[in-house]
Amino acid sequence: MRFGHFDDARREYVITTPQTPLPWINYLGSEDFFSLVSNTAGGYSFYRDARLRRLTRYRYNSSPLDMDGHHIYIKDGGTVWNPGWQPTKTPLDRYSCRHGLGYTILEGEKDGICAAQELFVPKGDACELDRLTLTNCSDRPRELDVFSYVEFCLWDAVDDSTNFQRNFSTGEVEVEPCAIYHKTEYRERRDHYAVFWSNTPVTSFDTARDAFCGVYGGPADPQAVRAGHCSGSIAHGWAPVGALHIHVTLAPGEEKKILFGLGYIENPQEEKFTDPGVINKTRAHAMMARYADDAQVDAARAALADHWESLLSGYQLQSGEEKLDRMVNLWHQYQCMVTFNMSRSASYYESGTGRGMGFRDSCQDLLGFVHIVPARARERILDIAATQFEDGSAYHQYQPLTKKGNRDVGTGFNDDPLWLIAATAAYLRETGDWPILEEQVPFENDERKAQPLMEHLRRSFRFTCTHLGPHGLPLIGRADWNDCLNLNCFSEHPGESFQITGPSEGPVAESVFIAGMFVKYGREYAELCDRLQLADEAAAARRSIDAVEQAALTAGWDGAWFRRAYDAFGNPVGSRECTEGQIFIEPQGMCVMAGIGRETGQAAQALRSVEERLDTPYGVVLHQPAYTSYQLNLGEISSYPPGYKENAGIFCHNNPWISCAETMLGHGDRAFEVYRKTCPAYIEDISEIHRTEPYVYSQMVAGRDAPTFGEAKNSWLTGTAAWTFVNVSQYILGIQPTLDGLRIDPCIPHTLTGYTVTRRYRGAVYHIAVDNTAAVQHGVQSITVDGKALAGNVLPLAAAGTTVQVQVTMG
Questions:
Q1: Phi and psi dihedrals of 52, rounded to 5?
Q2: Where does the Glycosyl hydrolase 94 supersandwich domain start and stop, copy by copy (predicted)?
Q3: What is the DSSP-derived secondary structure letter of residue 438?
Q4: Considering only Cβ atoms within 10 Å of each terminal Cβ, which end of the chain, N or C, has fewer?
């Protein structure tokens, strides 16, 4: 069942009913100011950090769902309605929501009045613009009262939702004609405030929630809207809001546009010591002046469109396969850019109050967007590396505003250091920017501890070398990729648990997954050493890698698949010896991607075991059999009911690893089958089962052990976005950046007879046409570059600004 459709020409997903299975959202903003907006105008806004600079409130886990947001009310006589249906839920004569690239347009019609609410964040400005277009589609004059309403958050979203004894006394505003200033805490911080304004003369206003909604009212039926006017309230303490009321008259057929804006203003350092009760409104006035008329707003929308056109033009596919083209050209890359901006900090499943930017998450996200914004990828690598410790380990998360490590989450995730190598190597393959390795980067953001980035990578590599367990496999620490596999937590006494943290404190758990990572990304590190003429270091690195690879092939092999780990007692996890959790997806994907067992047949056998034991119609589950009871020696993984999240759910994030691994063995049909099963465009028809947005990936889908098999959760912010784009663009379509140029190595379904990729790479543009009339899955027969035969399959680097024509014949 569908609740909308793709509009490929306009690069939009069009939702045709407000009552989607869950709120379906979009992200507005691409720099510092961001808004989340749902298909019914729910959502919230923040500046850079969803916790520390939250502009508007959002109530998670609320009922009714998704009531807080960017709401516009239209009062037409005795009828009150919203263009996006919520929060009044007045039935509409017509409704649609268009989620596009950095914008959303909600259109509603009621009793001959057509209303379009257009929302976007302009490039280069810290504000959200909401433009309302009203059209009188009837044959008689109409008088309407329009209200736009936001509820301000008191900046720190955690404090705002907990510290009521203080916050009920701190709300403070100022009002000008057409503008409301949210200056709560300004007298304390003196460096930022928000402004809510309109470019149209205001009839009335409110700034106190009790006055606008009523003490026992709410956004579904505000007393000011019901009365047809606001009261002019000034918030003193309690809950400050912004409510602007405009009376509108429309002749038959007449159209009027009204702009509402929500902006963030940050004063320079020297102004923080002025009168604490006075806001310098100069910057706010300048912001409002930039969008005073429709021509300026139109220009801002056009600039936003140009921005996205430039970003997405770097990788474009024409295959004749409509759904594949749609995902590769638009939605995969769009989601990658959202994860670049958000990491895992702010979604409809991440409240923005805790996780911040993930070390591992942000490194993996970079794999999917480095070709789009290489300069910003460079900045991100340096930011991430600066949170690292001197021993090579790292804070698992850091706050985007301060770029400081998140001590609440802490350290001990032993896969983290290797992801920094993965991200940096991917950046170098894309850009050839070797000077980045010489950049001075502090440890723990302490400039006194600054070292070249290459030293950070060296310590990342050595961290694994110096943290090996009794089987010669890497120690897992607190966890590896699977945060819920906590193998060092155990107790011999019921009701007690403790953490083993080092070899001196007893037996420690090991990870076969990290072993695969170490082999894959360790080899990339050794290659960097080669390029820097560090021959001895490269040789030593390869000796360490070979030893871990051998351990993975012996202690890590269970007979038909790779084991997952060894627990703190030395017992295997992910083995036939286990009653539950006998086989896991992660080591099968990562070890085969690393080339482990490729020559001995173990890699092929491991992937056969995945297909036989883990595959389902909705994707590959994390492990089987599911855990049916809590097992203290395994930690949080067994705390979930069977089939959900880490307990045998379908983690979309690591499904691409299996697809990538299949291409390593030349299995194009199987690789594409795995890709399709979780790809949004291919499962749009089961939206009533899947429930989350049919245009982006979710983190997980309920597995076959769950009563809601096939239901997705945690959409948008997931490493699935980056890994899926890497999978389809580099492993399946086979356009692979290397240190020396683009390697061409497609591994496609035999039914795909050919395709063309336009790829921007190091300043040149490559038009790569692949001919597969031979109907093979893998293998390149010949390549010509600008009409000349190429020996091998790595394209020579072209000069920046040039265009290269490449013809590839498979066979």
A1: -90, -15
A2: 11-293
A3: G
A4: N
Calpha distance 544→538 (Å, rounded): 10
Q: 66, 68, 130, 483: which one is catalytic?
A: 483
Q: Which fold has domain 4-309?
A: Beta-galactosidase; Chain A, domain 5 (2.70.98)
**Which residues contact residue 786 at a Cβ distance below 8 angstroms, ignoring those fewer than 6 apart?**
804, 805
DSSP assigned state of 752? -
Cα–Cα distance between 439 and 447 in angstroms, integer?
A: 12
CB 335 within 8 A of CB 721: yes
CATH of 735-810, one of 2.60.420.10, 3.40.50.300, 3.30.930.10, 3.60.150.10: 2.60.420.10
Q: CA–CA separation, 612 vs 588, rounded Å? A: 13
pLDDT tens-digit series, residues 661-694: 999 999 999 999 999 999 999 999 999 999 999 9
pLDDT digits (tens, 9 = 90+) for 531-548: 999 999 999 999 999 999
C-alpha to C-alpha distances, 565 to 182, 480, 538, 580, 615, nearest whole angstrom: 53, 10, 28, 14, 21
pLDDT tens digits along 249-268 = 999 999 999 999 999 999 87
Query: What token pair was written down for 587?
Result: 């080591």
- Whether the link from the prior residue into 625 is cis, omega within 30° of 0, is yes
**CATH number for region 319-725:** 1.50.10.10
The pLDDT, as a whole number, for residue 645 is: 95
Q: What is the pLDDT of residue 505?
A: 43
Which runs of consecutive H residues, i.e. helices, occur in 85-140?
A: none
- Dist. CA 633–CA 511, nearest whole Å: 14
Tokens for 695, please give them.
């245009």
pLDDT at 506 over 70: no
Annotation marks residue 483 as catalytic? yes
Does residue 492 surpass a pLDDT of 70? no
733 with 748: CB under 8 angstroms? Answer: yes
Burial class (CB in 10 A: 0-12, 13-18, 19+), 551: buried
Q: What is the pLDDT of residue 504?
A: 35
